[in-house]
């Protein structure tokens, strides 16, 4: 992925506990700002960036090196000079130079419980994700991995909040572009 100085448009990472609305929000941003949406979970499946399958959690175990190599190649091959919005439930594995803005979506436990139940998560997987959200693990990870000024926490319980968040990101994007003109 391009370095910050080479980018003509910003790169954004949307992160948060599974079920907070990362993919939906990233899709909205990509459509509104004409950005490339990279659903990292789908990239992992399509490019087989995993080591094995964990039956107890009903998920694949990530091969981080393969994923990072794949993303680096995909984005450089496409000659994308920024303008990428990625969504993934973790942030610490990505190089700091890849992103200009890290958005950590949060949601209430009641909303999250319902969303994870609707997805068919087993009790163990749902409980681990609920605990992760309650303890703010993803937010803390982002704060430890990136400069504090690029990490923003956004509440994402309702469609109205998602629309407000989109307006905030659009304003940030316009400011980022103006500063580089």
TrEMBL record:
<feature type="binding site">
    <location>
        <position position="21"/>
    </location>
    <ligand>
        <name>ATP</name>
    </ligand>
</feature>
<feature type="binding site">
    <location>
        <position position="22"/>
    </location>
    <ligand>
        <name>ATP</name>
    </ligand>
</feature>
<feature type="region of interest" description="LID">
    <location>
        <begin position="118"/>
        <end position="128"/>
    </location>
</feature>
<comment type="subunit">
    <text>Interacts with small ribosomal subunit protein uS11. Not a structural component of 43S pre-ribosomes, but transiently interacts with them by binding to uS11.</text>
</comment>
<dbReference type="InterPro" id="IPR020618">
    <property type="entry name" value="Adenyl_kinase_AK6"/>
</dbReference>
<comment type="similarity">
    <text>Belongs to the adenylate kinase family. AK6 subfamily.</text>
</comment>
<dbReference type="GO" id="GO:0005634">
    <property type="term" value="C:nucleus"/>
</dbReference>
<comment type="function">
    <text>Broad-specificity nucleoside monophosphate (NMP) kinase that catalyzes the reversible transfer of the terminal phosphate group between nucleoside triphosphates and monophosphates. Has also ATPase activity. Involved in the late cytoplasmic maturation steps of the 40S ribosomal particles, specifically 18S rRNA maturation. While NMP activity is not required for ribosome maturation, ATPase activity is. Associates transiently with small ribosomal subunit protein uS11. ATP hydrolysis breaks the interaction with uS11.</text>
</comment>
<keyword id="KW-0690">Ribosome biogenesis</keyword>
<dbReference type="GO" id="GO:0005737">
    <property type="term" value="C:cytoplasm"/>
</dbReference>
<keyword id="KW-0418">Kinase</keyword>
<keyword id="KW-0698">rRNA processing</keyword>
<dbReference type="GO" id="GO:0016887">
    <property type="term" value="F:ATP hydrolysis activity"/>
</dbReference>
<dbReference type="GO" id="GO:0042274">
    <property type="term" value="P:ribosomal small subunit biogenesis"/>
</dbReference>
<dbReference type="GO" id="GO:0004017">
    <property type="term" value="F:AMP kinase activity"/>
</dbReference>
<dbReference type="Pfam" id="PF13238">
    <property type="entry name" value="AAA_18"/>
</dbReference>
<keyword id="KW-0963">Cytoplasm</keyword>
<keyword id="KW-0067">ATP-binding</keyword>
<feature type="binding site">
    <location>
        <position position="24"/>
    </location>
    <ligand>
        <name>ATP</name>
    </ligand>
</feature>
<keyword id="KW-0547">Nucleotide-binding</keyword>
<dbReference type="GO" id="GO:0006364">
    <property type="term" value="P:rRNA processing"/>
</dbReference>
<feature type="region of interest" description="NMPbind">
    <location>
        <begin position="39"/>
        <end position="62"/>
    </location>
</feature>
<dbReference type="InterPro" id="IPR027417">
    <property type="entry name" value="P-loop_NTPase"/>
</dbReference>
<feature type="binding site">
    <location>
        <position position="119"/>
    </location>
    <ligand>
        <name>ATP</name>
    </ligand>
</feature>
<keyword id="KW-0808">Transferase</keyword>
<feature type="binding site">
    <location>
        <position position="19"/>
    </location>
    <ligand>
        <name>ATP</name>
    </ligand>
</feature>
<feature type="binding site">
    <location>
        <position position="23"/>
    </location>
    <ligand>
        <name>ATP</name>
    </ligand>
</feature>
<dbReference type="GO" id="GO:0005524">
    <property type="term" value="F:ATP binding"/>
</dbReference>
<protein>
    <recommendedName>
        <fullName>Adenylate kinase isoenzyme 6 homolog</fullName>
        <ecNumber>2.7.4.3</ecNumber>
    </recommendedName>
</protein>
<keyword id="KW-0539">Nucleus</keyword>
